[in-house]
Design brief:
Blueprint (H helix, E strand, L loop, with lengths): L3 E6 L2 E7 L5 E11 L2 H14 L9 H9 L5 E9 L2 E11 L10 H14 L10 H20 L1 H13 L13 H5 L3 H14 L2 E7 L3 H11 L22 E6 L5 E8 L9 H12 L4 H9 L5 E7 L4 E8 L4 H16 L5 H17 L4 H12 L7 H9 L3 H8 L3 E9 L7
Parallel strand pairs: 2-6, 7-11
Antiparallel strand pairs: 1-2, 3-5, 3-6, 4-5, 8-10, 8-11, 9-10
Length: 424
Amino acid sequence: MILQSRVLGEGVKLTVLPTDKFKSNLMIVELRCPLRQETATHYSLLTNVLSRCCREYPTLRSFNIALEEMYAADVDSYVSKTGEVQRVRFKLSCIENAYTYDKSDVLAGAMRLLGAMIFDPLLEEGVFPDYVVESEKKNLKEEIQSIIDDKGRFAITRCIRAMCGDEPYSVAVGGDEKVLEGITGADLKKSYDYLLKTAPVDIYFVGNTSIDTLKDYCEKYLPFAPRPYELYQTEVKEGNGEVKRVTEDADAVQSRLCMGYRTGINLHSEEYPALLLACDILGSPSGKLFMNVREKMGLCYYCSPLLDGVKGLLIISAGINAEDREKAERAIEAQVEELKKGNISESELKAAKISAATAYKEIYDSSGAMINWYATRVGMGISITPEEMAARIDAVTVEDITAVSRRLTADTFFMLKGEGGDEE
């Protein structure tokens, strides 16, 4: 696949991934900004408010009816994070024009609605209406609280907070309850104006529409003003060799152990393909953690690594009984040590490479996965295709994995302690 791109204006770029594989189009309008405590909650709430209604369609019902009339097109808005960057996203999905029974230009109509959502929100006396803001504050509060109910996810979040407390990476991209309480419609309007005026914009499209047509539609329906195009970088730190051990109590039976390592490696690094394979050898269904810590030793209910290739963090999470914490930590550390010693069989290496190759091929089975692949790398100033990354991974040796594993430095061992046993 050959990417096509156009600069629509200073700080605004269109990237097209042309394909006739799908019967629907997908467009993501992405505005990037630094992840900061003082703005993260505002932008998260803003996406909820904007996706609910606009001036032309002031109720959720009228907005949904308009979408239904365009062959059930879908528009949405949400936030996500890549390292220490918050991404404010506006998503459009609609049927490919060729598959409509009357050959109508659904894409143009859907992009007009997307533009209305972004540029023409519902306002009262120049600010977002209180009833809309308060309603969405309630919804966002429930979303934030739902993370606590997902104990595995919550444990990872708390581990990151303990590990990176003085770094932007620890900021909750979805928002903070205390900050949320004080936001007014006027506050949100100021955040909205600042975001639309200053944030670099990347527009991604997957479908079978020509880039020239898309450029015309973008200029008509998505009239972003010029702004500086900036790549916000994420700081990648090396570990200092000191391990923090943190425990928090939880209203749960099972305990969650999260062991955080700093790698000093990210997507920019030559060693990144080797680090990917090291994680797969550790955490695949037939990997060292599953086969030894779970199956042979019976010390956990699950055990898997999570690698953030932007921040350079590796977190190994496990569901355990609280009294098995020390044993589980030693057992997991022993498997990491096996990598550092180069105790990797040819079958393990081959299986990891096959798994990686399959994963990269599957990217092209999903328009969302395709956009996420390129959006992450575009935002970091990296140009590489899934095929090129697969080739790099195929060239990795056991010696490469051994060398990269030796850079893993334990940083923070966190446990969300349940009631199913006492910690030794």
